[in-house]
Amino acid sequence: MTASVLLRLANMADADRLLHWRNDADTRRFSLNPELVTEQQHRHWLEKSLSNPKRRLFIAEYNGQPVGTVRVDSTAESHLISWTLATEYRGKGLAKAMVKLLVDQLTGKIVAEIRPSNIASIRVAEHAGLKYQCTENGIMYFVKKSD
């Protein structure tokens, strides 16, 4: 499936879709911030995210259909990545494909923060080449150091 997954930069036209994915019950259950997000909060966050030069927010598409999102927040020291997959596309290997596609574009230290109960995301991180490093404050840290 990797060949069929493409990443494109998100834009304000994606706001409703991103909010729907963000507020999905399973997404919230495994999120570091499980609170429901209002439309106003989300639009403010998206505007700030799209104008932040240290953040890149992508929409993953499979066969031309938006299926999820991947985000990277970059500093001089590392890239922090996160992702969400639309409910109807879960269990098809698409999260693995989209996260690996992002990771393969990055150089340096790549980090993902994952709740221990989120087995699917642990598998996604490992598939992308990230290795478990430690657990702090109930969050597992997966890291990849690339050239």
From TrEMBL:
InterPro entries, sorted: Acyl_CoA_acyltransferase, GNAT_dom, N-acetyltransferase
Alphabetical UniProt keywords: Transferase
PROSITE patterns referenced in this protein's UniProt entry, alphabetically: GNAT (PS51186)
Record GO terms (molecular function): acyltransferase activity, transferring groups other than amino-acyl groups
Domain N-acetyltransferase: 5-147
Listed PANTHER family: GNAT FAMILY, PUTATIVE (AFU_ORTHOLOGUE AFUA_3G00765)-RELATED-RELATED (PTHR43792), N-ACETYLTRANSFERASE DOMAIN-CONTAINING PROTEIN (PTHR43792:SF1)
Record's protein name: GCN5-like N-acetyltransferase
The organism of origin for this protein: Alishewanella agri BL06
